[in-house]
Fold:
Amino acid sequence: MTVESYLNKIEKSITSGTIEENYESTFYTFNNQFSKYFINSLSKDIRRYLSEGSIEMLEKQFYSEIYYLTIRTLIDDFYNWQRVNESVPKEERYHRYCLKLGTVPFFKKIKKAYPVLFIKIFHLHQHTINLIEEAMLSIIRDKDEIKERIGFNFDDGIKEIVLSTGDRHNGGKTAVIFKNNNDDKILYKPHSLNNDVFLENFFSLVNRSLPLKLYHPKSISKKNYGWQEFIEFQECNLDNDYEDYFYRYGELLAIAYALQVTDLHKENIIMSKNYPIVIDSETLFTNPDLNCNRNSTIQNPETVHDLFQKFIKDSVLDTLLLPNNFQSSLFDFDLSPLTNYQQLSENITRFTIENDFSHNIHLKEVHVVLPSSNVKKETNKFYGKIIDGFKACYTILENRKNYFIEEIKLLSEKYPLYLRQVLRPTMVYVKFLEASTHPDYLTDIKNQRKLFQKLNSSSYKLDSTLGKQVEIEINSLMKGDVPYFYTKFNSLSIYSMENKICNFYATSIQSKLLERFQKLGNKDMLKQLHVIFLSLSTVKDTTFSDINQSPLHDFIIPVNDENSLVLKVGDYVNHQVVWNNNNEFCILPSVSQIDDKKVILPVSYCLYDGGGVVLLLYYLYLKFNEEKYKIVADGLLKGFESMIEIETNRNFSAFNGIGSVIYIYYCLFTLTSEPDYHEKYKFYLAMLEKQDIPLDQPIDFLGISSLIILLCNIYKIEHSSKLFTLLKKCINYCISQLDNITVTGLAHGYSGVAMSLSYYYEINPSTDILKCIEKLLHKEDECFNSILKNWKDIRRNHDDSFPNFWCYGAPGILLARKEIFDKTNIGNNDLSIIENVLSNVEKIRELNLCHGSVGTISCLDAILKDEENLLIKESIDLYFDNVVSQVIKPELSTDLNTMNTFSFMLGVSGVVYEISRKQDDRLLNVLLLELKRT
Structure:
């Protein structure tokens, strides 16, 4: 059948006379013509197997697809009609327009104006008819084999036949669900199911050793299609079932990682009681090793961003079984099967109809809301079982990897694999197909091709191999298909339905898979366990404590003393860093909070985060003469430099900005006397001198105030006029913004800013500066509670809060005031306040420097370094010893948040740095940005 003959038949089928519009669906009378003809086109041989209900359901499905194709054009035409018929009352216009929809003249008019629309409708009709007939003929032919292998009885009669709502490929093909009169279901897939048979057999091999067996749906694979057992969602009933489910989930994750399985997102995994089951293994293995220019940044990363992307591709994250909340993710939502909460995407939109059935009908673009999973129970308390299952299965695969490698080779020979390769995110193709239904692209077929040519970006034009890929993509989209590519297990070529691109890959999937299996070992498992832990912790409302596992704790325990602890933490960092191919620079993946969302990303150069890790590693190098720590520290610094290089707006801060690397390099110069570090310090200082202070630059201690203190400390050593000029610029900005400080505390409040002004006063005394300091302290003292002997935290949502941290509360404020007194003689420290802080140390639940007990004790230690009250000093030492024992005790630490974060101020690196500083006079007090011991 041709397009023209199809349209002639539609035209002849149009009923003469008036057809009333169906107000359950927009522009029903026009779209219904195509769905009616579609059903009438099904052969009698097919229809006799189908119930009336299943025929009606097929008609509705086809109608909805027609509706999707026509809605934009009909709305556009309706508005054109209204402009010509303004005399018609507005409330009657939709009805009057619809009266014309089901007429031959209107049909001819639309056909002439939008010929491409009807080509699309014709392709949809032909593809869907062919799909249904192929599926029906196949089930009739295979019914006995299906009954024996899967248990579905075709002879019970077909109650329903449902086309999958998924993407269409290779001539409009998609999965088809058959349901018989006993309500049993079976799934028809229009491609070989050798992948599933392979996976089913591989599971059987591994199951012989697994504590809990895995299950894969029974499958029958034919040359171009296959049958699969239909798996229904069934939620677990008891906590024990959930524990088994997530343990098996960990086992599945280990297998998926070892086999380099990707695309196991929430639509491809289903919960069936206490089993996680793969229901779509079409993209069983993905080959990232393209033999083209575009591949260079992935395989040979030259930037931190590229290296981070390679880290993701080489880790368990690439399976999509784990939350994919990471920096620079293509999606701003989590696709993993573990997500059981609703998500709103800010980047992905869809169109919805507003003011339906009226003169003002229009399409409105709205953000996509991804529904929650069917799992109702809060499941994050079972996440630790994922780690248990992963470790158990990974160990089995590692211990017998040579056996499994041989079995994989045998299985792939017995069941030749046809492995779908997703060369672009499917969403990209879907968006192009959606755009192609706009009236502007439906007037001429050339406009369609011009639209799809936008896929041929500059990077594709420069590579002939990628140019062939684009041509195949365009031809598929022109037929209404989402492009479909596949490769074979031991091939370098990629295939489409009609084409082949030779040498598309640099290495075969078989080679990549065997390479992954050879990589399995203790070091790799430790790295993957850490990635799993990080990923699970990014799930909404999940804490490290919920997971109740700690790869870092397991690695460092047992230890006998502080030195062993510090070395173990350093070794763990060395294990977790990711190097580029030439070992020129490295990154350290961690978790951070960005806009109320936890994400995996490389630690930053900021002192608050990853910059402090470098100081810890250099200390280990100097104390223990271990070159390996210096190598990693230098690698991280190289990575930090590339981060700074691409920044366009650099923050003026020593804790959260460019001042961090200035401090780090000056510290390293102080510790080692190596002139290269001094040159680096001067380079970044010059970079800062050339830049204007950002208009929104915070002036608190984590902002420009910390930079002022750092510059003052350097100036007292260097006495540079350029340094003083920069310092003056920062001070002037800070004073101009003093009214923006409205809270108490060191990190973000009055004391932190006042302390920075006191440092400047020490090198350039001024009554104006003194007045500013006094004003800030007076405002803060208005919040002092003489009974509780603490300053109230007056941030919003912190009512009646009197914290005892470095960041907020008495410890940080007292530290700042000691510094202020030493430099200006303003104020003094009340020892009774310190005693009150000590009495509350045991109540602090976390260990970190910012808002944990180690930071609090470090503040007190610095405050009292010149005091002669031995009793208080002994109390501080006792509390510090208690904190150390918390860290090194064999049972799981209560503060998993600190012990599983690398961040200097929030994590373990800062804790062990302070433990080391208590023992070694060479280490500088980072909390005060020291550059030499006083």
